[in-house]
Amino acid sequence: MLSLSINILDFIDNMSNKEKVLVLDDSALSRSRSKKVELLTRVFDHSDDKYLRGYRLLSLCWSDGTSLLPLDFALLSSRKEHKRYQGIIKEVDKRSCGYKRRLEALSKSTDLVEHMVNRLLSRGINAQYLLMDSGYAWPALINQLREHIHVICMARKMETIYYYDGKWCSLNQIYRLVKKRPGRARILSSALVTLKGGQQAKLVFVRDRRKKDWLSLLTTETSLDDSEVVRLYGKRWDIEVFFKMSKQHLGLEKGVQTRDFDSQIAYVTIVMMRALFLSLEQRRQEDPRTLGSLFRACCQKMQDLSFLDSLQRILQLAVDRLRRTGEFSEKVFQELISAVYGTAIDFFGLNRELCQRSW
Known about the structure:
Elements: H1 2-13, E1 21-30, E2 41-45, E3 50-63, E4 68-76, H2 97-105, H3 109-122, E5 129-132, H4 139-146, E6 150-154, E7 163-164, E8 168-169, H5 171-177, E9 187-194, E10 200-208, E11 213-219, H6 226-233, H7 237-249, H8 261-286, H9 293-301, H10 307-325, H11 330-348, H12 352-358
């Protein structure tokens, strides 16, 4: 699956000049009618706000804002034995991948994230940021991931997580201390803080449109503008669409009936490979830049003209045409040019000396 996704990524990457990001999230896979499935456990579904039988699917995907490609996943059970309906049934050699997958299923999701990210980046995956939900916004995990990639995530409103801003404060305390923007601004404020472990970070407070409250985004790239942090984090929504599409149209939850954990892993791999081919075909059919690298090469050759250059060229063509008529003197031409430049300076606030030197 990873080898296939890298080949597809090479094709799509040449067609995109947008920011590339990795997106991490998990989703509950329901096996409501199952009883004897290996490592079946009791999981909480945040979308329906209830417990169900099944697994948690931890997925790591790549996105450029147009296409989303699943790269890696882990099918998770529960570490607590009393929450599992079934344990490990099959006798598996400890040197095999099946045994390693079973150990992975019994691990904490936060213990797997750094290994998954490092595995992708070591294979040459091009990504500038890792986007995560608040479920993974732990300072210890962010410090680990920052050694490999910049992180943008939703900060957790927990009184047990502290940030240093002159003194150690919780997220709610920092929000009360910072100065807010007036009116109905979408971005309320921001603050530079230090995480436990010494990592510098930036908190961006935004208005929650669903209710009269606020949300906070955290990024380890402190030089980013506040609006840029919000825009980049918006790309995380693609993975929610991916989960919904996989469950409703690719049969991720109800497409297989088996008790073996290896078969569950194989089927999830097949579903994600289907999603890879669909993303590739959609990009080939709908992306207007079908020539890919040729389009990018042409764009690199083209340079946008500044306002002064454009104005100068237009005036030069107009003056040359008037000179050919022979009806106006050179003094009239100079007065016309001065009037046009003067109007442009007053309207756009340009530098008068710069305009005269350019002409």
